[in-house]
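Can anyone check this?
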Amino acid sequence: MLNTVATIRATRTHHFNALKEDGELNSVPNEREAVCEYCAAAKQSRKPFSSTKDEMEAMENARNDTSVCSDVLGAITPVSKSGYKYIVIFILMQSRYLAIYPMRNNSEVCGVSRETLKKVQREAGLSDKVGLEFSLLY
């Protein structure tokens, strides 16, 4: 019975040496240098990131609010109850503002982009007016 329990335990944990030292497996040779691939992977440690706090702040400050990343996901199955098959995501890099919009067709991306730009300008207090309304007076 002990031999069966030891075999199951050894199969689960891959630690024959520990079982050998406990006296549960007397027939298995004690091989200290042999490490299974799972144990070797578990013993690996991650190296720290080499970036310092100053470098990270410099990278953040190098970005400007005008850079926007976007991505379109889809066609998503199953289609939502409202008929949406696509999702478009916008991210303003400096502020990390995130906007996600569902779409029924992939061709709606341009319209959604325009609406998102207007919304961001409105919320940020920016204006796309350049003062041409007064040029007609002269």
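Reply from J.R.: I decoded it. The chain has a mean pLDDT of 73.
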